């Protein structure tokens, strides 16, 4: 089928223009960009959709978007399709349904050109939000240790070519690599611990910067990256998210918080929190040993083993209370350790890149913290 199909866009004003042409985005690209800009919570079924598109045959619109524009372009397409298939009526649904229909009837070449236009015109703030979401999906893949295996045994594993997210086992403390799914992205390997994300979870994003400043000590709150756009209340947004397991009644269950730290504070926190020297030179960040050796991320590494004595000063009492009630923290204290695996920091080799700090929090206390950060009305507002 060629581009002259009646359901395919043919007129210049309807077709995606070449990247960087200076014109306004096409109507189709504008619709996808609008859905990306408006989203606050990713669809619950997103991991399944991602697994499906990776395994699907070439030729589908979803696959074309994924191959051409990576996760970000595919995510935009998925938001439009989700809106088109949703039972609830809303303004703009007809346009979403019409676009999906046109894409299904169009050629792979047109689908790829539209995906390229979406990526070209995607604002930096939205790119960062999508990148953070993608990272959460990737981190789910780290839960590879069998449930019966000793939770404190750390394994060093080789790169896994599989990129489909799979349900995580019971929370374990493991080290395991991830390979980025997009063929257009550089393969990445980073490590994490303590079951950072869950197979059936809800993710809260767009935390109020004002609320974050009230919750965290000044030093940390001033180090959290901010997003360029405002939230629905017109307030500045902190680069902070929280994820919750769905429908859990296990009192030992935990939730997770992710903080994005500005690049100029990474060396400070690596030393103060983890006792490790991180240095940067000629655009490259690396771990410096006391004997002059250097460990260069490829392209990321994770610091774990947060100094217990630094918890109150670093995060404040509310966060400390939530950390201290997690099974990992209690196990660390029970074994008379001076460090805990409840906090970790992922650092990139790029000097200008931000770092990401992950905290494991007790579910009840974490829910209360989320109510403050995301200005939820009551505990019943927590994702279920």
Automatic annotation (TrEMBL):
Biased composition annotated in UniProt, kind: Polar residues: 1-13, 139-150
Segments of this protein annotated with the region Disordered: 1-26, 138-174
Lineage: superkingdom: Eukaryota
The protein's name in its UniProt record: Uncharacterized protein
